[in-house]
Design brief:
The complex is a heterodimer of chains A (408) and B (379).
Chain A: H1 12-23, H2 25-33, H3 40-53, H4 71-83, H5 92-104, H6 107-118, E1 124-126, E2 141-147, E3 150-159, E4 168-174, E5 184-190, E6 196-200, E7 211-220, E8 225-230, H7 233-245, H8 251-265, E9 267-268, E10 271-272, H9 277-305, H10 313-336, H11 354-365, H12 372-383, H13 390-393
Parallel strand pairs in A: 1-4
Antiparallel strand pairs in A: 2-3, 3-7, 4-5, 5-8, 6-7, 9-10
Helix pairs in contact in A: 1-4, 2-3, 5-6, 5-7, 7-10, 8-9, 8-10, 9-10, 10-11, 10-12
Chain B: H1 7-23, H2 26-34, H3 41-49, H4 68-80, H5 86-100, H6 107-115, E1 120-123, E2 140-143, E3 146-157, E4 164-170, E5 181-187, E6 193-197, E7 206-217, E8 221-222, H7 229-264, E9 266-267, E10 270-271, H8 276-305, H9 310-336, H10 347-357, H11 364-375
Helix pairs in contact in B: 1-4, 4-7, 4-8, 5-7, 7-8, 7-9, 7-10, 8-9, 9-10, 9-11
The chains are: A alpha+beta (408), B alpha+beta (379).
Chain lengths: 408, 379
C-alpha cells in the first residue's frame, strides 16, 4: 500500500505558481471585482485569464484547453484559487461536461463544447431537476423529440451555477417518451437558441442563484447529444458526477484547517479556545469527518486511475461530502459562536466571512445531482440491497431508440 | 498512490481465512466465549506455528520483523472471524512494549513470545481509567535494591492465562505525568499477585490484577527507570493501528451480515432491504466499515513509512474505529431485529467485541483530544 502525499497539502510548487499568478496586479484587481451580482463581466474576464493558463480544467488535454495535468493537480489548483476567493474555479458544470465529453465526445463535440468552456470563453450550467419535484436528476421534465436529423426540446428544468447568464446548459433529457421516462440522454444546449426562457429565482447564494429554464420547441442538432441514450442514465450520471468531484478542491478540509487555526489563536480566559475540551472534541469530529471524506475521494481516484470497477463508492462519497459539510457547518457555529452568522462585509465577521458563505453553500449544494435521499438509494442499490421495483431499475443498459412523439 | 494489498498480504489473508473458517466457525467462537477461560491451546498453537505471534518481533529476537501493514492485513481477517485477541495482547501489544522499551535484558522472553511459548499481557489501566501518561499512578517503591509494587490494574486482557505481566508503574511522582513511569515484568506466580476475571458483556477476557506488596528484583525493570512513557506511547501507537484493522474487519462482517439479511428476510411480502429505513442503516454501517478500513491502513502505512504525522493518523483511525465498530453492529442489530440478539446467529459476538474495544487503547474522545494536542503546536 502507498497512500502517497496528502492531497490537501500536496503539489506545493503548483500552488506557489497559482499564488504568484494571483498576485499579479491585473489578476488581483480582476479577482477582487469578480464577486457579487455586479461582478458578471469581471467573472467572464477572469475565466478567460484562467483559461489562458489552462487552469479552468487543468486535467483536460492541452488541445482542448486544459493543461494536461492529473485530477489531483486540478484539485490543488482549484483549491488554491478557492482559498483566494476565486469562486469560478470550483464550479461543477465544466467538470461534469469535461468528464462526459472525455468519455463519449466526438472530436466535433470536444471542439464545439469543451474547448470554449476550458478556455473560459463559455460558461456551462447544470440543469437537472425541477423546482416543484425536487432537485435531482429523476425529477427533470425536459423531453427530446426526434426531428429532421436532430431533436426538439420541450419542458422545464432548474439551473444551478454558471452565473446569471450561462452560455450552455447541460441536462439529462427524456428520450423515450414513455410514461416511466427511464431512457434519457445527456444534452448540451447553447443558451441563445430561440424558444429558451431563463427566469432567475431568489436563491441564497447570489452568484449561483437557481433559475427556471424552459424549452419551447427548441431545435438542437445531434451534436448536442453526448453519449448514449440509456435506461441506466441515472447510474451514468452518478458516474459522471462522482468522477467530476475528484477534480474539485477539498473545501471542507481547507475550512477545517481555518477553524483549527482560529481555535488555536482565539483567546479564551487565560488560554485559547482550543484548550477547551469540548471545542477540541468538536474540532476533532470535524477533522475526522474531513479525513474520511478525503479517504473516500482518494480511494475513488485510485480505483478510476487503475481501472477498477466502482459500484457504490461514488454515491457513498457524494453522500458523505454533503452530510459531513452539514455537520461541519454546525460545528463551525459552535466554535465561532454568534460571529459565524456574519458575512464578509461585516468587519466583525470571523474568517473573512467564509463561514457565513459556506453555510449558504452547504444548503445550496445539498440537492444538486441528487439530494441525500437519492444518494442513499443509489448507494444502497449499488451495494446490493434490494430496492422496491428493483427489476425495473436494473433493466438493460443498452441504448434505446429516441421515440418519435407526436407534438399534437 | 496504491491502495491494493500486495500479493503476499493477499495470500496471508487467504491462508488466515482458510484456517479460521476451519478452526473457528461461529459455533466455536460461542463455545470459547462460554468456556471458563476463553482460551483454546490447540488454536493458539496453530496460530503461533503460522508465525502470527512473531510478526512484530524483530528478526534479531527470533521474530519475523514484518511490516505493520502485513500485520494489519492479518488482523483484518481475524476481526472478520471474531478471533480471540490473545494473539494481539501477547504477540502485538506486549511484544511492541518489550521491543520499544529496549528489552535486551529480556530478549529471551521476546523470543518466547514470538514462538507462542509464553503469553505476556500489558497491564496499564487502573481504577481511574485512561490511556494517557497521567493514568498510571500505581507506585513502585525501591527497597533494598528491589521494587515493591502496590495497587490495582483493571481491564487487563488475558491476564488469567498469561505467563507474565508487564506492569506500568510510577517510580517517581512529579508534575510531568510523562516522567517517572517504568515498566516491570512480573511473573504470574509472584507472591502478592492475584488475578480475577471481570464479568460483564465482554468481547474478550478482561481481568483485575491486584499487586499486594509484590516485590520484584531490579532486573525485572524493562527499559530505563522513569523513561517508560515514550516507548509505551510508541508501542501503543503501533498496536492501536493493528487493532483498528481488526475492528474494521469486525465491522465489515457485521455490515455484510446486515446486507445479506436484507436480501433474504421477507416482511410484508418483500425483502426488508426495500424499506428505506433499513437501507439507511445499512449504508451508514457500510460508511463505518469502509472509513475504518481506510483510516486503519493509512495509519499502518504511515507508521511503516516513518511519516511525522503517523501518530495523528493513528488517533484518527482509532477515533473512527471506536465509534464506527459499535455503530455498525448497532445498525446490523436494527436490520436483524429480534433474531440479532440470538447468540447462534453470531452477531452478538461482534457487538461484544465492539463494546470492549471501544475504550481499549483510548476511546474516541481521548483520541480527538490527542489530535488537538498533536495539531496545536503547528501554529
Amino acid at each position: 500500500m502507498d497512500f502517497g502525499p496528502d492531497s490537501t497539502s500536496g503539489r506545493p510548487e503548483l500552488r506557489a505558481r497559482v499564488r504568484a499568478w494571483l498576485a499579479l496586479a491585473q489578476v488581483s484587481e480582476l479577482a477582487d471585482s469578480a464577486t457579487g451580482a455586479e461582478g458578471g463581466q469581471a467573472r467572464r474576464e477572469l475565466r478567460r485569464a484562467l483559461g489562458r493558463q489552462g487552469w479552468l480544467l487543468p486535467a483536460c488535454p492541452r488541445e482542448w484547453g486544459g493543461a494536461g495535468l492529473e485530477p489531483a493537480d486540478e484539485r490543488a489548483i482549484a483549491g488554491e484559487l478557492w482559498q483566494h476567493g476565486v469562486a469560478v474555479a470550483v464550479e461543477r458544470g465544466p467538470r461534469v461536461l469535461a468528464e462526459a465529453l472525455e468519455i463519449w465526445g466526438s472530436d466535433a463535440q470536444l471542439a464545439s463544447w469543451l474547448r470554449p468552456v476550458a478556455m473560459g470563453e463559455a460558461t456551462v450550467a447544470i440543469a437537472w431537476g425541477d423546482i416543484a419535484g425536487g432537485r435531482h436528476p429523476e425529477a427533470g421534465d425536459v423531453a427530446a423529440i426526434a426531428s429532421a436529423g436532430g431533436y426538439v426540446l420541450e419542458g422545464t428544468s432548474e439551473v444551478e451555477e454558471g452565473g446569471p447568464d450561462p452560455d450552455l446548459f447541460l441536462l439529462p433529457v427524456t428520450t423515450d417518451g414513455a410514461e416511466l421516462r427511464q431512457t434519457r440522454g445527456l444534452f448540451i444546449v447553447p443558451a441563445g437558441l430561440d424558444g429558451i426562457v431563463l427566469e432567475p429565482l431568489d436563491g441564497i447564494v447570489p452568484e449561483r442563484a437557481p433559475k427556471r429554464l424552459t424549452f419551447r420547441d427548441v431545435p438542437v442538432t445531434r451534436l448536442s447529444l453526448i453519449g448514449p441514450e440509456t435506461r441506466r442514465w441515472r447510474d451514468l450520471l452518478y458516474h459522471l458526477v462522482g468522477r467530476s468531484r475528484l477534480r474539485m478542491p477539498d473545501v471542507a478540509g481547507a475550512l477545517v484547517d481555518l477553524l483549527w487555526s482560529h481555535a488555536e489563536n482565539q483567546t479564551l480566559g487565560d488560554g485559547v479556545l482550543l484548550d477547551d475540551d469540548v471545542i477540541a472534541e468538536l474540532l476533532g469530529d470535524a477533522l475526522v469527518d474531513a479525513r474520511i471524506g478525503r479517504a473516500f475521494r482518494r480511494r475513488n481516484e485510485w480505483a478510476i486511475a487503475t481501472q477498477r470497477r466502482l459500484t457504490y463508492e461514488l454515491a457513498q462519497e457524494a453522500r458523505w461530502a454533503k452530510r459531513s459539510a452539514a455537520r461541519l457547518a454546525a460545528i463551525g457555529r459552535q466554535v465561532l459562536g454568534a460571529h459565524a452568522l456574519l458575512a464578509a462585509e461585516d468587519r466583525r465577521a470571523p474568517l473573512d466571512g467564509r463561514w457565513e458563505a459556506f453555510e449558504r453553500q452547504v444548503l445550496a449544494d445539498a440537492n444538486p445531482a441528487g439530494g441525500p435521499e437519492i444518494d442513499a438509494e443509489t448507494y444502497a442499490q449499488e451495494l446490493g440491497v434490494p430496492l422496491a421495483g428493483d427489476e425495473r431499475l436494473r433493466q438493460t443498459a443498452e441504448p434505446g431508440p429516441i421515440a418519435a412523439r407526436s407534438t399534437a | 498512490m496504491d491502495l491494493a494489498l500486495t500479493e503476499q498480504q493477499a495470500m496471508l489473508q487467504t491462508s488466515a481465512a482458510d484456517l479460521l473458517r476451519r478452526e473457528l466457525p461461529k459455533d466455536k467462537v460461542l463455545e470459547l466465549n462460554r468456556s471458563a477461560d476463553g482460551f483454546d491451546p490447540h488454536l493458539w498453537r496453530q496460530m503461533a506455528d503460522l508465525g502470527w505471534t512473531a510478526m512484530v518481533v524483530p528478526e534479531t529476537a527470533g521474530g519475523l520483523g514484518s511490516s505493520l501493514t502485513d500485520v494489519g492485513a492479518l488482523f483484518e481477517i481475524l476481526g472478520q472471524y471474531a478471533c480471540p485477541l490473545t494473539v494481539f495482547t501477547s504477540g502485538v501489544l506486549s511484544a511492541q512494549v518489550l521491543a520499544e522499551a529496549g528489552a535486551s535484558a529480556h530478549g529471551g522472553l521476546l523470543s518466547e513470545v514470538a514462538t507462542g511459548e509464553k503469553i505476556v499481557t500489558f497491564a496499564y489501566t487502573e481504577p481511574d481509567y485512561g490511556w494517557g501518561p497521567g493514568a498510571v499512578q500505581l507506585p513502585a517503591t525501591r527497597r533494598d535494591g528491589a521494587y515493591v509494587l502496590n495497587g490495582t490494574k483493571l481491564f487487563v486482557p488475558d491476564a488469567h492465562i498469561a505467563d507474565s505481566i508487564l506492569v506500568a508503574a510510577r517510580t517517581e511522582a512529579g508534575d510531568d505525568p510523562g516522567a517517572g513511569m517504568s515498566i516491570f515484568l512480573v511473573e504470574k506466580e509472584q507472591r502478592g499477585l492475584s488475578v480475577r476475571q471481570m464479568s460483564g458483556w465482554l468481547g474478550d477476557r478482561l481481568c483485575e490484577v491486584t499487586l499486594d506488596s509484590v516485590e520484584v528484583p531490579a532486573s525485572a525493570m524493562v527499559g530505563d527507570e522513569g523513561g517508560a512513557w515514550a516507548p509505551i506511547d510508541r508501542a501503543i501507537d503501533r498496536a492501536t493501528a493493528v487493532l483498528c484493522a481488526y475492528m474494521a474487519g469486525g465491522a465489515r462482517r457485521a455490515t455484510d451480515m446486515a446486507i445479506e439479511y436484507s436480501r433474504t428476510r421477507i416482511a410484508f411480502g418483500v425483502p426488508i432491504g426495500t424499506f428505506q429505513r433499513v437501507q439507511d442503516r445499512i449504508i451508514d454501517a457500510n460508511d463505518d466499515a469502509d472509513s475504518m478500513r481506510l483510516t486503519a491502513y493509512e495509519a499502518l502505512w504511515k507508521l511503516d513509512s516513518g511519516h511525522d504525522d503517523a501518530p495523528l493518523a493513528v488517533s484518527t483511525a482509532k477515533a473512527v474505529a471506536s465509534v464506527g465498530f459499535p455503530r455498525a453492529c448497532e445498525a446490523s442489530h436494527h436490520v436483524h431485529g429480534g433474531i440479532g440478539t440470538d447468540h447462534t446467529l453470531g452477531l452478538v459476538e461482534y457487538t461484544g467485541k465492539a463494546r470492549t474495544l471501544q475504550p481499549y487503547l483510548g476511546d474516541a474522545a481521548y483520541h480527538k483530544r490527542r489530535i488537538a494536542r498533536l495539531l496545536a503546536p503547528r501554529s
